[in-house]
Write a structure and sequence with these properties.
Elements (H helix, E strand, L loop, with lengths): L1 E5 L2 H18 L4 E4 L6 H12 L9 E4 L1 E4 L9 H8 L11 E2 L8 H14 L4 E4 L21 E4 L2 H7 L4 E4 L2 H5 L3 E6 L5 H9 L17 E6 L7
Parallel strand pairs: 1-10, 2-3, 2-6, 3-5, 6-9, 9-10
Antiparallel strand pairs: 4-8, 7-8
The structure holds fructose -6-phosphate.
Fructose -6-phosphate binds next to loops.
């Protein structure tokens, strides 16, 4: 695990977008695992800006998102599909066919999850971006999730329901799914993440802090700002 400490959210976002751009230049058909939430938003803004300047071409990348609420209507603004299209996909030259999202409208959620696992197996993720929840979750792998978990339907923890204001379940890549990524970048910014960051980095590898399982990855980069790293 490599830990990079930066000053603030702006520096964190710059570092993440620079890594993504560098990797796309090395491998134009890079497969990227994206996250939603506040943590990667600044990096996505940078990617859009650099794309507009002609500095990066997304036409050959493939993407997989970590998670989606379930069930959720296709036109619900709260969906992670809407988040991704509004915050990045509609603003870069990505091909729609290369975008993979868990379908929160799928009737057969088991098949949806199995198909997603199969697709990831066929297109291994080169670079996976993850945020961390205040309770140590990654994706929607809430405390209690195991290292062998696969893409599945999960209940959200009460903190997550409160913070995300979504009363329902979710589909999420499992921890074993995420760990198959060739490289994982975990981002954390702000004081509210300090406890989760401390626990996942220096605590035991344990299912109560699902992010701690990422320490099993051979290529994990943790980028944290001063506030998120304040308890280390
Ligand atoms: C989002 C996701 C979640 C978030 C986490 C942090 O796709 O899977 O695990 O990364 O809840 O959210 P923010 O970044 O909003 O603090």
């Amino acid at each position: 695990m490599k830990i990079i400490k930066v000053k603030d959210y702006k520096e964190l976002s710059n570092m993440v977008s620079e890594i993504i751009i560098k990797e796309i230049r090395k491998k134009p058909n890079l497969t990227i695992g994206f996250a939603t939430g506040k943590s990667p938003l600044g990096a996505y803004k940078n990617l859009i800006r650099e794309h507009k300047k002609g500095k990066v071409d997304f036409s050959r990348i493939k993407t997989f998102n970590l998670d989606e609420y379930y069930p959720i209507n296709a036109d619900d603004k709260k969906s992670y599909r809407a988040y991704m299209f509004n915050n990045i996909f509609n603003k870069i030259n990505i091909k729609k066919d290369n975008i993979n999202l868990l379908d929160g409208t799928a009737k057969n959620f088991k098949k949806e999850c199995e198909d997603y696992e199969d697709k990831i197996k066929k297109n291994p993720i080169d670079l996976q971006i993850v945020g961390i929840g205040v309770n140590g979750h990654i994706g929607f792998n809430e405390p209690g999730s195991t290292i062998v978990s696969r893409t599945r339907l999960v209940d959200l923890a009460s903190e997550t329901i409160k913070r995300n204001k979504y009363l329902g379940k979710a589909l999420t890549m499992g921890i074993s799914t995420i760990l198959k990524s060739k490289r994982i970048i975990l981002l954390a910014s702000g004081k509210e993440k300090a406890r989760a960051v401390r626990d996942f980095i220096i605590g035991d590898i344990d299912k109560n802090i699902p992010a701690s399982f990422l320490r099993k990855s051979k290529n994990l980069i943790v980028i944290i700002d001063k506030e998120a790293g304040s308890l280390l």
